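Changelog-adjacent note: as of this version, every example in the card shows the full chain rather than a window. The one below runs 191 residues end to end.
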Amino acid sequence: MSDAIDVDRWREELESKRAEKDEFFADHPQSPIPPEEREDFEGLEYFDPDPTYRVTATATVHDDPEVVLMDTTAGREMRYLRVATLAFELDREDDALEDGTFELAAYRQESPNEQPLFVPFRDKTTGQQSYQGGRYMELEPERDLEDGDELVVDFNLAYSPFCAYSETFDCPLPPEENWLDVTVPAGERDE
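Full-length structure tokens:
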């Protein structure tokens, strides 16, 4: 973790967000948990909070974003724009690249730019300890990104898409460029 944070406060905020999400999944009419299963729902499963997986990434902005077609769980394709590439380091000596640097592409749909950056990814937990279709993160920079800007990428906030809980949802699958060859035991996991 490259920037100093109050780890106790960070952990408290993370646990609070997780409790809020569990409440939404258990009770809200728009929960992805099928209504007949909500009574037995006891909360989502998570990896233990680990500040090691809260990293600072350096952005490379794509001024003329390339269209990326993402396959979906229902066999369709969705159009996204690759708006930035985020480079970061993970302290994972066991399975990091030679220099320990990894990259993830950040996308937006072709609609207005006000939406957060969408960062779908797979890692070595995918299909084992986490959802087989990959996980998502959303990043909300405080302003339009410029080359060299740094932003926090907290894998502890990685979540499974709604299609992990019900087949009625159609979710984009992370493109191959966002398949990390590393284990990221942070965020939501399978039971």
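Structural remarks: The beta strands are 45-46, 54-71, 77-89, 101-109, 117-121, 135-139, 150-154, 188-189.
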